[in-house]
Input
Amino acid sequence: MFNTIYNDVFPLIQKKYPSKVQIIFRQQIQPWHPSSTLVHEAGAAVLQTRPDKFWAFSSALFAHQTDFFDVNVVNETRNKTYARLAKIAAHVGVDEGEVLGLLEVPDKPAKDGSANVGNGVTDDVKLMVKANRLVGVHVTPTVLFNGIVENSISSSFTKDQWEEWLEKNIV
Output
């Protein structure tokens, strides 16, 4: 669905509905894939540093998604995975060091002794999860229209199906 939205639906909306439709890509962590949290944290780091590059980063990440599937990260430390994600961000024009700085988890407790310190995007991830829970998002992808889950749209929707759906639903 991402590729269809990014490559086909965006241009269609810009042409036919420039002031009537806004697409918001809200990330949804899939907890049964442990690395899902890490890749979504990388998206949050890009949003913090270069929000104008988020869609390009997401496109690059989808192109390399299998690099972050369970079997390809199982023997890698969390910070090593973050380093690979920061390199993808760098390929789309985001400062690699800045992204990695937000993602890396320290190996020493905080000054107050706390050991579950998270990283520079932990609070963003908490907000993402909360926002998705509040609207009932459970699976990916989930499309919302005017804030309500739109179950008629599936991940296999083609450009033509999107165009037909938009024509019926955009006044």
About this structure: The mean pLDDT is 94.
